[in-house]
Design goal:
Length: 160
Amino acid sequence: MKKNTTAETPLEFEPEFVAGLAKIFEEMIAFNQVLGLKIDSIRPGGVAGRIAMRRELVGSPNRLHGGVISAGLDAMGGLAVMAAIGARHMDEAPAQRLHRFGKLGTIDLRIDYLRPGIGDHFELRAEVLRLGSRVATTRMEFLGADGKLLSTGAGAYIVS
């Protein structure tokens, strides 16, 4: 019987892969720059990032615009899919895995706004629920600086 090593040794990405994925996400996707999205962690099981409150992102006084919340959650869902694809192909070199994301796109997105986006910064988290050969499904969270859940999201992404 083959021994299951994944339970004993958690899968970790190489620094080169994490840095490359962060560069794609933060520097090469112009809309993410507009939002000010920054990555905190990229792991095979999920991703985390943050957005700082800026005047140009505000909807009504002192509240983050719902479109910013939606766009941030969508972007994080896509990043979680990129990480899951990278984890699926760990037999490839990091640079080779970074070229697998050209056809990734959102095909469905649902956002539930639970509380207003009030605060000086926000945390975003996303995880992949299922990574198929053509479609990935994700779950996302948007939290205030105090850790309170402000919005949730669910997305489907085309991966082929």
